[in-house]
Design goal:
- The structure is a single chain.
- The chain has 109 residues and is mostly helical.
- The chain has 5 helices and no strands.
- Keywords: Membrane, Transmembrane, Transmembrane helix.
């Protein structure tokens, strides 16, 4: 269980961030692109809901949601140097998510 608690923030990041960047970058007109955007958006929503379930707690889900917000802010500010300011907070949130997950594991066991 310890390995799972330590690896879950990285796993959620690998599942959420490509979907988020894909959702933000697909802006082509046409039905296939719209269907792809809907599919990627549903995947992202499912991953965000999954971050709150499974005994992970509200804190872990909030950390994952805030990380998605920081990735979106970095995408929005991309041509400027401010994008790096948003990206600098992500490793701190990864640590927070791991600690929250470990605390949840300690109180459950």
């Amino acid at each position: 269980m310890l390995n799972r608690a330590l690896s879950e923030p990285c796993t959620f990041a690998l599942l959420q961030w490509p979907a988020l960047v894909g959702l933000l970058s697909i802006d082509q007109p046409g039905l296939p692109w719209l269907a792809l955007r809907i599919l990627v958006g549903l995947w992202l929503a499912a991953m965000l809901v999954a971050a709150y379930t499974g005994g992970r707690g509200m804190g872990f889900g909030n950390a994952m949601l805030l990380q998605c917000g920081l990735v979106a802010a970095a995408w929005w500010m991309h041509p400027s140097a401010w994008a790096f300011a948003w990206l600098a907070a992500i490793p701190l949130l990864m640590l927070v998510a791991q600690r929250l997950r470990l605390r949840r594991l300690e109180t459950a066991g």
